[in-house]
Amino acid sequence: MEALAVVLALLVLAVAVGLWLRDRARLRGRILRLERELAELASRLTGAEERLAEARLVLEAMPEGVVLFDPAGRAILANPAAATLLGRPPQTVEGLFPLDLRETVRAVRTEREPRATELEVGAPARTVRADAVPAAEDGSVLLVLRDVTEARRLEAVRRDFVANASHELKTPVASIRAAAETLRTVAGEDPEAVAAFAERIEREAVRLSRIVSDLLDLSRLETGGEAEGEEVRLDALVREEVERIRAAAEEAGLTLALEAEPAPPVRGSARDLALMARNLLDNAVAYTRPGGRVDVAVRAEGGEVVLTVADTGIGIPSRDLDRIFERFYRVDRARSRETGGTGLGLSIVRHVVENHRGTVRVRSELGRGSTFEVRLPAAGPGVETGLAEGRPDP
User: Fold this and answer.
1) Could you give the C-alpha distances from 337 to 179, 206, 208, 232, 287, in angstroms and in order?
2) Phi and psi at residue 384, in whole multiples of 5°?
3) Is 135 in the same domain as 158?
4) Distances (CA, A) of 383 to 244, 357, 361, 380
5) What is the mean pLDDT of residues 353-373?
6) Of the four, 22, 27, 96, 288, which is 20 to 30 A from 201 by CA?
């Protein structure tokens, strides 16, 4: 009996050990599976963290402002550009955000439809476009902010340009038409009237031709033009332009003086540089009263060639100094039309100078005269001489 009991005990023990070994193998298998799952989860988590870090870098580097609002309307994520565009740290939509922006975000949370608005922020004022879209079904809202100040300014410039161009072209055309109609009625009856109206038609046709020519030059310059990149002696070029206008200056009772020192060449377009000098000289002669003077100088200074055109003319009011390089902007419209000016000359000057990587400045005193100073980089070793792309007016 004792032997049987021992055998049974051994059998029970063997079964227990077998079951234990089987459970242990199963447990080990489960542990191995868990370890693999944990490793895979850790890998995914690491990848997610890396992607999150990359996304954060992209978000922080974006020029557009990005703000994420939770369903309660709280700003839970914002990049640096958002704070810069709004001029304040974005915290909550109810608190620090402008009223227009708060209403836009609330409307998107309620209607679940994209909305856009524009607002003026900061000083000086900037125009910011805000696009708000639903970010999730829970009521979150994603807000994207963009500075559209320059775009809106350019749109206004284009509108003004079209309006001004239409007006400038309409005036001589209307004058030519009226003169032609009158000429038709008096033809053969009054030779003196015929001659007067014919002269008027010719004068207005010349003015119209100048406007078209200046518009074509300005368009070419704004798109970069075709500057050949040749070496140009600005002193010799300016001397030729001074001689070209000398007769007109003397006829207007002006003293025209030139002081042109030998200067290194500049690299660019001789055609455009002559156009720039011509417009500066024409402008000085047109706005200087009889008995006045126009002084022109060319000199080399610190790796630059400097052209100065100074007159004792009517001068420019300080309020107009920032606008005189705009298309069709005139300080004295009546005098400009009287002298045949198109209102595009100084805009052409600015574009030529900018296309040659130069600068143009003006100093003026009302009733005392104006001085225009153009600085262009001299061509030579160690001097950057490539031509810049054309840029539009502000």
Assistant:
1) 18, 12, 11, 33, 12
2) -70, 125
3) no
4) 31, 11, 22, 5
5) 91
6) 288
Task: Return contacts of 218-224, CB within 8 angstroms, 24+ apart.
Answer: 218/327, 218/344, 218/347, 218/348, 218/351, 221/272, 221/348, 221/351, 221/352, 221/355, 221/390, 222/351, 222/390, 222/391, 222/392, 222/393, 223/390, 224/355, 224/387, 224/389, 224/390
Answer yes or no: is 30 within a domain.
Answer: no
| The overall pTM is greater than 0.70 | no
Partners of 128 in beta bridges: 119, 147
Range of the domain at 264: 229-386
Strands (E), the chain: 65-69, 75-78, 115-121, 126-134, 141-147, 230-232, 255-260, 266-268, 293-301, 304-311, 359-365, 369-377
Residue 328's SS3 state is coil
The first and second tokens of residue 304, run together, are 């630059």
Cis amide linkage into residue 124, ω under 30° from 0: yes
Has residue 32 been placed in a domain? no
Kindly report the CATH number assigned to the domain that includes residue 341: 3.30.565.10
d(CA 287, CA 331): 10
Percent above pLDDT 90 for the chain = 21
- From 176, 193, 223, give the residue that closes a domain: 223
Whether residue 351 sits in one domain with residue 247: yes
**Do the beta carbons of residue 364 and residue 199 sit within 8 Å?**
no
Residue with tokens 């009546």: 334
Residue with tokens 């038709």, as numbered in its chain: 184
Give the lowest-confidence range in 35-39, 165-169, 273-277, 347-351.
165-169
Model confidence at 190, pLDDT cuts 50, 70, 90, reads low
Q: What is the CA radius of gyration of the chain?
A: 38
Structure tokens given for 362: 């003006």
**Does residue 370 share a domain with residue 280?**
yes
Strands 255-260 and 293-301: parallel
Question: How many C-beta atoms surround the C-beta of residue 315 within 10 A?
Answer: 17
> How far apart are alpha carbons 319 and 299 in whole angstroms?
30
- Among the candidates 186, 204, 223, a domain finishes at 223
